[in-house]
Amino acid sequence: MDSDSDSGGSYISATPPRHSSPPPPPPHHSPPSRKPQHPSPPSPRSNTLFSTKCKPKSKTKIPNTSRPILRPKPKKHSFKPDPIAVQPDPFPEPVPSVRPVSLQDLPFRLINPCGFDQCESETRPAKCLAVLKFGSFSKKNVACLNFEATEEEKNKDFGSAPSGSEKAKSSLESGENGKDGCFGGSGSKIEVEAGKAAGCAENVVRPVKKHPNLISSGDFVQPVKKAKCSNEGNFVRLNINGYGRSKFSYKSKNRNFKSSRRRNKNWNVRGNDSKEEGEFVEEEGLVFEKKGEKGSEKIRGEFEMLVEEAVLNVRNEVSDENLVKLLKLTHGFDEFRDGQLEAIKMVLDGKSTMLVLPTGAGKSLCYQLASMVLPGITLVVSPLVALMIDQLKQLPPVIPGGLISSSQTREETEETLRLLQEGALKVLFVSPERFLSNEFISIFSAGTLVSLAVIDEAHCISEWSHNFRPSYMRLRASLLCDCLNVKSILAMTATATKKTLLDVMNALDIPPANLIQAAQLRDNFKLSVSISENRMKHLMTLIRSSPYKEITSIIVYCKYKYETDTISKFLADGNIKAKSYHSGLTAKERSRTQELFCSNKIRVVVATVAFGMGLDKSDVGAVIHYSLPESLEEYVQEIGRAGRDGRLSFCHLLFDDTTYYKLRSLMYSDGLDEYAVNKFLRQVFSSDEFAGKVCSLPKESLSRKFDMKEEVMLTILTRLELGEVRYLHLLPEMNITCCLNFYKTPPAVLASKDVFVAAIMKKSVTKDGHYVFDIPTVASSMHVQVMDLTNQLQYLKLKGEVTYELKDPAYCYTILNSPKDICSLTEDLTKWLLEVESCKVKKLDAMYNAAVFAVKECDKMLGCNDCTPFLQKKILEYFTADDGNEIPNKMGQSSPFLRSDIKVFLQSNNHAKFTPRAIARIMHGIASPAFPSAIWSRTHFWGRYTQIEFKAVMDAAKAELLNIVGKDVI
Ligand SMILES: Nc1ncnc2c1ncn2[C@@H]1O[C@H](COP(=O)(O)OP(=O)(O)OP(=O)(O)O)[C@@H](O)[C@H]1O
């Protein structure tokens, strides 16, 4: 593809933003010419593609994340704390933000997650855990205290091997199915103690660094200090499921014997002092390694009883006091942050809840705590595998969790499902694609109780959000409740406009009274903006001057991959330790960069949107936007990666008009006209309908044919699957063309013995000695499943009879209902796609307007460079405004030369077929599958009209095409 911009992971969207194309390379840089993939030269009357057979019919305070404190030197800060409650003050007084020294001021972090005495705590430099592989934590009951490694270990270089999380993330971005992370049995590796807790008394439990939910994939494996009793010590697991308790007991008839037995055993072993050394003592969720010292055992016993008691207390009475006690024990925090308590109480009351809290405000804690108290399982749906892995890792040790995603092997998935069925998991992370699949639903119909379904990044449900994902369409309350018997839903997001929220709450059946919302921005940001004609120079100056020069971790966000490389090199040349990060790099390179950044070995990461989701670094001190974000949601999300430790952090936005115009053009790169939608639908429903017949759409060739991006095709297909009428059922993508060679037995002889081969012979063409055939076609002709045919091919290959190669990745589906009126379906779909497109454009305009407003207001206050109140104002307005507000933009509506330029363009390219949209795209310099920039950027009209409204260019193109072909064609 021509795109140089990055997506935010496994992004699939009908909408333009993240797969948008880069600015075209200048003509002299164009790659070697390829023949344009357009149809053969048309007759004059057919010089338009846009006529179709379908004639168109006529608050609250922002949660203060752990008391903002000053970074080392920033002198005076004047950030306004509460954009909702307080009107922005144009002359903000500097807020004295020095606070008394607290634990957080120490050069290390003390944790005490399990309520041990302070001396149990340990210095915590991050990310240096030796890991020891373990079979399955359900058996070994791996759970433990989350201590981190010693300073010495921290300084070790872990090489370039990527973390499990990173690998998954990388594979996601690159569309690979990474097999390298074993996520099935979370806790399948145990982190072993890597150092002594500083200053701890002798006779205590060693801080064993193992966590049931850590899923480091072996990449972090360092010379493992073999754990002394790692798999043979005395393990204690805490029962938090409440089995056996009448009030919350899970009354499934299908509980299998094995798990019941284990549960009973759990209950029997409470107060395990009597257990012998070396024996496993199983209870849900918590494992201590026995060190053979009576004191430590006592502490363990006390702790497990405390947590269990705290859970029971909450079950008996959901009071603030009881919940705070549980919070202290399980997470080590003294109090809840804004919104958390309300959300937890609502969920425990069985009410579906919409929770809107800023990034880093602690939304995850709400379902974590609730999951301990609720019976059965809590399902968490997340959009990215990387996010799921991070969330799984962040579960406190007492909560056993698992994960199911498409990046797992079958065995890993099966292992997780086994644990699930045994009742060994409390929280299960699942991707939306897997969610509600027949296979998944069948597990729950067997009796696993789902108390709570958590939809993380819930805005992805809505096409009016900045990050709509078709796969999230399947998350409807009706489906969740009907298929999984979910008791209540918790939808969480950090960034959603009013319209998006309404949409999400409608889909999930959440009543308005159950909305818990705080300001969408934390209060520990100092925001600034500048218009810059030389952004590179500006960036360098910024990083070298105060306060940025004192900040050790900075993220610079760019739009394009090439920009990240150029800028990181530029910074490195200026003696600033910087590296680039984008999806064009190998997984290993990306992982290495993230490692270096997280261990503070580089100061700056220059990245595309591909960086940051699931980033577990709390001390990022600054985020600089080198390019204008595409929406205020994206801006808020990205600056939210700074200051997660609660300290004051600095965010600067550099922008210019040229970038804005380019971005605005890109917003139109996914849109479709009725003509293309109609053609596509006809292709989708072209097959004869018979039950189970697998239809396929080869992605690449059809993408060119319809001038439609592959992900847009998928969006339409998903809509056809999950809309009001279920027109089709999507199947996994597969390569549909097979090139077969026969080795041992001559084809005719083999065909006489094998019906599959006979069918293949009938349906294949021979090409250079290969038999080439379409797999679904052959399977259909035999009335067998595609899988049967591929299995037979595999079998013949193993016998040495054949070799074959599969190619042409395709979307596969079966038709459930053919539309009665394809024209009205076309119309509906086109309307929807155009609305989504214009929504994206509006979002960019809102972002641009906010930036311009902030600059102007600062200019009025001569010399002021603190844009915080102005941006806060705009962000607040944006997220709370009613839909339908017109957003002004600075696009031109016409140009005296436009029509004549289009005319000349059409005359000089009369060999090609154009739609008005195709012409407008070229005039705006946007590549598309049928008009790639490698070819079309050579025309001097390429990108000439980026400053004229796209629709105006389309109208002009339509008029010119009509002039050429005659009005009767329309
Ligand atoms: N009550 C609390 N007191 C102190 N720290 C807390 C509290 N609740 C959560 N945290 C910490 O805040 C940090 C951020 O939490 P979390 O990752 O859940 O945020 P989030 O709202 O999900 O953010 P994002 O939207 O970016 O995913 C975590 O380190 C978490 O341990």
From TrEMBL:
SMART domains: DEXDc, HELICc. Its EC number is 5.6.2.4. One of its GO terms (biological process) is double-strand break repair via homologous recombination. GO terms for cellular component: chromosome; cytoplasm; nucleus. PROSITE patterns: HELICASE_ATP_BIND_1, HELICASE_CTER. It is an enzyme of class 5 (isomerase). Residues 344-514 form the Helicase ATP-binding domain. Keywords: ATP-binding, DNA-binding, Helicase, Hydrolase, Isomerase, Nucleotide-binding, Nucleus. It is found in: Nucleus. It comes from the Eukaryota. Residues 1-98, 155-180 are annotated as: Disordered. GO terms for molecular function: 3'-5' DNA helicase activity; ATP binding; DNA binding; four-way junction helicase activity; hydrolase activity. InterPro entries: DEAD/DEAH_box_helicase_dom, DNA_helicase_ATP-dep_RecQ, Helicase_ATP-bd, Helicase_C-like, P-loop_NTPase. It catalyses: Couples ATP hydrolysis with the unwinding of duplex DNA by translocating in the 3'-5' direction; ATP + H2O = ADP + phosphate + H(+). It holds the Pfam family Helicase_C. Residues 19-30 have a biased composition (Pro residues). Residues 1-10 have a biased composition (Low complexity). Gene3D superfamilies: P-loop containing nucleotide triphosphate hydrolases. Residues 535-685 form the Helicase C-terminal domain. Belongs to the helicase family. RecQ subfamily. This is DNA 3'-5' helicase. It comes from Daucus carota subsp. sativus (Carrot). The lineage of its organism: Eukaryota, Viridiplantae, Streptophyta, Embryophyta, Tracheophyta.
